[in-house]
C-alpha cells in the first residue's frame, strides 16, 4: 500500500494492535496525508523496505542522522526503532492528521 498511499493526497488507515495506546487503539480509523516535512511529535505511517505492504503507525521521536527514530506510544507492545533502528525518510509514507472513527 505504501506506493499507492503516496499517489493519493488523503488516505484512511485502520489501526491494528495496541502499540499506539493510549492515543490510538485497535480498530480506530485514521486519516493520513502525504508527508511534506517530518518533525518530532508527528504520528506517521511507515512502510519498511524490508516489509513491503505492511504499514506501521508510530510517533517520530527525533532525527538520527539522516534517518528518523520512531516509537509506539505503548512501549511494552511496540515493534519500533528500539528493535529495528531508525527509519529512512523514504519509508515514512504518510502523516496521521486525525481519528474519524473510534473503535
From TrEMBL:
Q: Per the UniProt entry, what are the Gene Ontology biological process annotations, in alphabetical order?
A: signal peptide processing
What is an example of a Pfam family matching this protein? Peptidase_S24
Report the GO molecular function annotations.
serine-type endopeptidase activity
Which residue spans traverse the membrane? none
Give the UniProt subcellular location, in the record's own words: Endomembrane system; Membrane; Mitochondrion inner membrane
Could you tell me which SUPFAM superfamilies the record lists for this protein?
LexA/Signal peptidase
Keywords carried by this UniProt record = Endoplasmic reticulum, Hydrolase, Membrane, Mitochondrion, Mitochondrion inner membrane
- Topology in the membrane? Single-pass membrane protein
A GO CC annotation recorded here is: mitochondrial inner membrane
The record's section on InterPro entries has: LexA/Signal_pep-like_sf, Mito_IMP1_subunit, Pept_S26A_signal_pept_1_CS, Peptidase_S24_S26A/B/C, Peptidase_S26
Boundaries of every Peptidase S24/S26A/S26B/S26C domain copy: 8-84
Q: What is this protein called?
A: Peptidase S24-like protein
| Lineage, uppermost ranks | unclassified sequences, metagenomes, ecological metagenomes
Amino acid at each position: 500500500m505504501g506506493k499507492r498511499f503516496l499517489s493519493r493526497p488523503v488516505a484512511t488507515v485502520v489501526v491494528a494492535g495496541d502499540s499506539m495506546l493510549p492515543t490510538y487503539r485497535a480498530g480506530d480509523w485514521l486519516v493520513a496525508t502525504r508527508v511534506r516535512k517530518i518533525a518530532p511529535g508527528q504520528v506517521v505511517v511507515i512502510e519498511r523496505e524490508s516489509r513491503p505492504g505492511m504499514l506501521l503507525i508510530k510517533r517520530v521521536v527525533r532525527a538520527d542522522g539522516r534517518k528518523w527514530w520512531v516509537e509506539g506510544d505503548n512501549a511494552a507492545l511496540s515493534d519500533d526503532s528500539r528493535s529495528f533502528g531508525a527509519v529512512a525518510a523514504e519509508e515514512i509514507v504518510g502523516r496521521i492528521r486525525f481519528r474519524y472513527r473510534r473503535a
